[in-house]
Amino acid sequence: MVKLKQIKVMSLNFGPQHPAAHGVLRLIIELSGERVLFCDPHIGLLHRGTEKFIEIKPFIHSLPYFDRLDYVSMMSQEHAYSVVIEKLFWANIPERAKYIRMLFLEITRILNHIMSVTTHALDVGALTPFLWGFEEREKLMGFYEKVSGARMHASYIRPGGVQQDIPLGLLNNIFCFVSSFESRLYEIQSLLTNNRIWKQRLFNVGIISEELASSYGYSGVLLRSTGVKWDIRKAIPYENYALLNFEVPFSMNGDSFDRYLLRIEELFQSNLMMLNIINKIPLGPVKTSNYHIIPPSKIEVKSTIQGLIFHFMFFCNKLPLKKGEAYVGIEAPKGEFGVFLISDGSVIPYRCKIRAPGYFHLQSINYLSKGLFLADVVTIIGSIDIVFGEIDR
Q1: Are strands 351-355 and 26-32 parallel, antiparallel or unpaired?
Q2: Which DSSP state fits 166?
Q3: What's the rounded Cα separation, in Å, for the pair 162 and 276?
Q4: CATH number, span 50-391
Q5: Per-residue pLDDT tens listing for the chain (393 residues)
Q6: CA-CA distance, 259 to 113, in Å (whole number)?
Q7: What is the dihedral of CA 86, 166, 242, 254, to 10 degrees?
Q8: What is the separation of C-alpha 22 from the centre of its chain, rounded to a whole number of angstroms?
Q9: Dihedral sign computed on CA atoms, order 177, 183, 186, 187
Q10: How far is CA 382 from CA 75, 93, 294, in A?
Q11: Per-domain boundaries in the chain
């Protein structure tokens, strides 16, 4: 009679510098053979205390921190911070600035989803989509550079509008990109969507239900993959999203393959929205006339010597501002990215709290991976699309 050996439970460190970790993620995984019994995410390896830094600087000085949170969705986070300041201080934004913001928010969504889908494919073993996708990303990074001078950390969306108007000819360049991008997406789809290996690695892997998604605080693509048709751009429109015609894709299975399909469909929708915005964008100013971004009940000045003095006093912390608190959540590429600010009347925020979608998504990794194979953990990390700048802020 052959005596069977018992498989010993083994603890394995995944990361913190693992090529499939999408950041400095450390997972302590308990394995029985190749099966995952328990997966414990450890963060704290990148922590920079961003919120506390924001609480010791004037409002406007903290804007560049937001580029460096999710460093694949730069302008989306600048936008959330700018909008919460505008809400706190009652600033009115010119129409042209709203359309420019929406244009670059959708460019940022495409940048994020191309990175997410192609690096996920790279994790699973497909190299070609990564090369094709990054060729398109280079064009979009060029648009970032043309408006701000920087390819990544743009600091372009500012409280009160945008830093400067878009240069002459840029809309034509973006139109040329939009015209050709759809065919590029079909090419990437042709490599992945019906690929036998890709479907076997993603289908029915990392399934989550609608109830659990809500309890974990899911948002964005991960929430919509469970059947919840929730998109802040539709549900609580900001800027001029209510004037745009677009669909909110959703699915029912809640697995990694559905999350891939939704990101692909969102790429198509963002491409169409960019074309819509180019056709609708009006002429006019790109910054608010209220240069000091305070309630209009106070002195309403434009580019006068009085306005210059007011502006100087504002930045020297010599002028009391409106006291209060405000929260703004936007539909960032990864989900609901929110900023909560409290003003005590000075030019420095009394309190800042950042709601990063990736932080909520990562906490469910134990549930998603339990009972699956070790190789499936790599697939799940890619499908939840995490970037550690926003998680471990």
Answers
A1: unpaired
A2: P
A3: 20
A4: 1.10.645.10
A5: 566 667 788 888 987 888 878 878 899 999 988 899 999 999 888 888 899 999 998 888 889 999 999 889 999 999 999 999 888 877 788 999 999 999 999 999 999 999 999 999 999 988 999 999 999 999 999 999 999 998 889 999 988 889 889 999 999 999 999 999 999 999 999 999 999 999 999 999 999 999 999 999 999 999 999 999 999 999 999 999 999 999 999 999 989 999 999 999 999 999 999 999 999 999 998 888 765 554 333 444 455 666 667 667 666 665 556 788 999 999 999 999 999 999 888 878 899 999 999 999 999 999 999 999 999 999 999 999 889 889 988
A6: 11
A7: -90
A8: 14
A9: negative
A10: 22, 37, 43
A11: 50-391
User: What does the block give as tokens for 201?
Assistant: 């690695």
Q: Are 11 and 24 in contact (CB under 8 A)?
A: no
Can you read off the two tokens belonging to residue 328? 């703004």
- Taking the C-alpha atoms of residue 283 and residue 311, their distance in angstroms, rounded to an integer, is 26
pTM of the model: 0.90
Q: Is the peptide bond before 249 cis (omega within 30 degrees of 0)?
A: no
Q: What residues contact 146, with CB distance under 8 A and at least 6 apart? A: 166, 167, 170, 173
Cα–Cα distance, 231 to 59 (Å, whole number): 28
CB within 8 A of 106, min separation 6: which ones? 270, 273, 274, 277
